[in-house]
Design goal:
The protein is of the alpha/beta class. The chain is built from 11 helices and 9 strands. It folds into 2 domains: about 190 residues, Spore Coat Polysaccharide Biosynthesis Protein SpsA, Chain A (Alpha-Beta Complex), CATH 3.90.550.10; about 100 residues, no CATH class.
């Protein structure tokens, strides 16, 4: 019986000493054992770097790279550069994966000859045993409409050849949306299951758990997705514009709640909302949450600001 192919698991590590053991243990105890586990210590200032070295001594499959701090995208890119597996999986160092996560994703990818195999996380949607093969464009459409299929880099398995031309954009927030959506614009086939295989941890210090103006990067990311769709896949423009509308609503609400209601940033969000909302309102594929936001915005900006602050 031939050996199963090597799969590279890339784990960016930065100041996660309280989470790292559980994360790595969930990888080393996978039912799929032919793994290369790459821990990228991204300039940690706590014990995380030393913990990486200790973990490598306990399992020969673990490789450690120490580097100066460059952010999540830079750490992932370093891992991609040194990966030697036939497939790549990303796991964030404060999260864990289910014991059969990698074997399930590998089986899906091979059985359906897919470039990417995807699952859900944290029981995000009801598990009914669904396995759905899709084109890359249809998967991108579902992600842009935010219907069950999420655009995170983790909880997915990728064939290594996809990284010959693609890397994560350094120095931005929402790098996952930027990377995954534009990758799907080019791949032929993906497969998705509604099984929850990834356990995402919302930390108090996480990017998504705190507000900063850097979170406005999502507006530039969604603008680029619209431009890419317009140039290469105009059939995806309604979905791309709806994702931009969703991002604009989200940022507008956060700006209002954090003292930036009358800023130029809020002006930009409101312009996007006004220009995009009516097309999404009458689009049957747009989720209810977006349509409720549109209806709340129709009385005007001040009313929307009031709703944003009341709903806090």
């Amino acid at each position: 019986m031939s050996q199963l192919p090597l799969i590279s698991v890339i784990v960016p590590v930065y100041n996660v000493e309280g989470y790292l053991d559980a994360c790595v243990t969930s990888i080393t105890t996978q039912s799929y054992s032919n793994l290369e586990i790459i821990l990228i210590d991204d300039g940690s200032t706590d014990r995380s770097g030393d913990m990486c070295d200790s973990l490598a001594l306990s399992d020969s499959r673990i490789r450690v790279l120490h580097k100066s701090n460059g952010g999540l995208s830079d750490a992932r890119n370093h891992g991609i550069d040194i990966a030697t597996g036939s497939f790549i999986v990303f796991v964030d160092s404060d999260d864990t994966i289910s014991p059969d996560a990698i074997s399930t994703l590998y089986s899906l990818a091979t059985e359906h000859n897919a470039d990417i195999a995807m699952a859900t996380f944290n029981n995000h949607c009801p598990h009914r045993g669904r396995i759905i093969p899709l084109s890359g464009l249809e998967a991108a459409r579902l992600m842009l409409y935010q219907t069950n299929m999420d655009s995170s880099a983790w909880n997915k398995l990728y064939r290594i050849n996809l990284f010959s031309r693609h890397r994560f954009t350094k120095g931005i927030y929402y790098e996952d949306i930027d990377f995954v959506i534009n990758l799907l614009f080019e791949v032929k086939k993906v497969v998705w299951t509604d099984r929850s295989l990834y356990n995402y941890t919302m930390r108090p210090a996480s990017i998504t758990g705190n507000f900063s103006l850097k979170r406005l990067d999502v507006l530039d990311v969604t603008d680029r997705i619209i431009a890419n769709a317009a140039a290469h896949h105009p059939e995806l423009l309604p979905a791309a514009r709806d994702r931009s509308l969703s991002a604009s609503f989200n940022m507008f609400v956060l700006l209002c709640r954090n003292g930036y209601a009358n800023s130029l940033h809020a002006d930009r969000c409101w312009r996007n909302i006004k220009s995009l909302r009516m097309a999404s309102l009458f689009n049957p594929r747009v989720r209810l949450k977006n349509k409720l936001g549109i209806l709340a915005s129709l009385p005007g900006r001040r009313f929307t600001q009031l709703i944003a602050n009341i709903s806090k």
